[in-house]
Amino acid sequence: MQGDILSTIVLPLGLAFIMFTLGAGLTLTDFKRVFLHPKAFAVGVLCHFILLPLVAYAIVQAFGVTGAMAVGFMIIAACPTGTTSNLLTYHARADVALALSFTAVAGVVAVFTIPMILDWSINHFMGAQQKINFPYGLVMGQIALLLGVPVALGMALRKFAPEFTRRFHGTMGLIATVLFVLIVLGAIAKNWGLLKEHAPSLAPMVLAINVVMLLLGLGLSLLTRVPMRQAVTVAIESSVQNSTLAIVISSTILMNDTMMLPAAVYGILMYFTGILFVFVARRFLPPLTTEEQVAAAAAMH
């Protein structure tokens, strides 16, 4: 019963608040700002929505993973970026405004792409075990409820109560961070036996996906002459996924805890690769000017 409550109530509500907090930091301008950096945005879309699923699939194949565990990795690859990527972008001295814009657009696009990747992954990796008529409409509606509605409510709060939002957005962000940690820890605690058994084999795969996508995002950006600040942003946005959403999809929508294990490991290890990349990026990016610091701080709040 406790596991059911965690999966059906606690996890979705926790994710809803996290996405509400993300929405409270967005405006409609964030959706339009991507056109200021069309080349960087195009590379980001290529990396995030096309190369990331392909890289995840290639690594799953290379490690010989099949069944529900393989689907779990594809769920991670299907999820959009989240608040963590924006925070890492800020500390890397990269383009926070671009990061926020990409996060906003990716969240909308993911409502349509996640069901497609889920359907293909389940049929490909579990076709012999679990023949299903995938409920596209139902899953798309659930993803929209998990992503779109809380973000829209957060944006509405910022629009109609801007002073209140500015005053409490920092506190909301802290609560969202705590909720993220609790969700990951809850997922680990609930499936400790499975995780203990599989973590040694999952960790190298998670790290491989992170590192490959960081390198692809940065490398392709520089090859297409994207400025360094935007290139670092694209690298982070290409590799840091919304692991909370992946946990909720696995536990609540698909009701398969094995699928959730890659997301639980990912939710921990993405910080190690992300923070290391931030330290490296800061050695190559000049300090922000006073005006840029003010603009970045304002964008984060």
UniProtKB/TrEMBL annotation:
Task: Check the record and name the PANTHER family matching this protein.
Answer: P3 PROTEIN, SODIUM-BILE ACID COTRANSPORTER
Name of the featured protein: Bile acid:sodium symporter
Give the residue spans that cross the bilayer.
Answer: 6-28, 40-60, 66-89, 96-118, 138-157, 169-189, 201-222, 234-254, 260-281
How does the protein associate with the membrane? Multi-pass membrane protein
Q: Where found in the cell?
A: Membrane
Give the source species.
Answer: Rhodoferax saidenbachensis
Keywords, A to Z, come to: Membrane, Transmembrane, Transmembrane helix
Q: Which GO terms describe its cellular component?
A: membrane
Source organism's superkingdom?
Bacteria
Where does the secretion signal sit in this chain? none
